[in-house]
Amino acid sequence: MKTMSLVWLFFALFLAGCSTNPAHGDRSHARKETCKPTSEAEIHEEFVRWNTALRGGVAELIVAIYAPRSILLPTRTYPVRITQQEKIGYFTELMRAHPSAEIDLEFIEIGCNSAVNSGLYTFNLDGQYVKARYSFSYRWAGTQWLITSHHSSVVP
User: Fold this and answer.
1) If exposure means fewest CB atoms within 10 Å of the residue's CB, which of 30, 55, 62, 125 is most exposed?
2) pTM of the entire structure?
3) Does any domain span residue 18?
């Protein structure tokens, strides 16, 4: 009987040990994040803000919409642009074609302090129209949405 009680005790302790995960144990110090309430309309307006800056012709103003740690995978040229100076160089060159864009198809996905706007747009570059696919990812930076990644590629 005593042996059977010890077996049950060890079995119970074994099960208790299996139920705790040291990697996910005490979460009292875990980061608590408040999610900014947003909507598809608000994220769409971020595209409008980007397009307005694009039409404005000042590269520094459009690059200010990108997070300091962000990536630009542009349509027309290689390489990718990571630093602010690389993005300024890219947009300075692009501005010579007086660009503007119009969304043809838009799909928005919203997360906690993040959002993705993907779809199809048509670029107007000095009167020549280029259809392209796009993806913008955004992060809420406390006071505004910033672009963390932007990919654009010509529709084949």
Assistant:
1) 30
2) 0.79
3) no
Residues 69, 83: Cα–Cα separation, whole Å: 8
Which pLDDT tens digit goes with each residue over 57-107?
999 999 999 999 999 999 878 899 999 999 999 999 999 999 999 999 999
Q: Are 113 and 97 in contact (CB under 8 A)?
A: no
Contact in structure between 117 and 135 (CB atoms under 8 Å): yes
The Cα–Cα gap between 153 and 96 comes to: 19
């809420």: which residue's tokens?
140
In CATH, what number is assigned to the domain containing residue 143? Answer: 3.10.450.50
Total domains in the fold of the chain: 1
Residues with Cβ within 8 Å of 40's Cβ and at least 6 positions away in sequence, in order, are: 108, 110
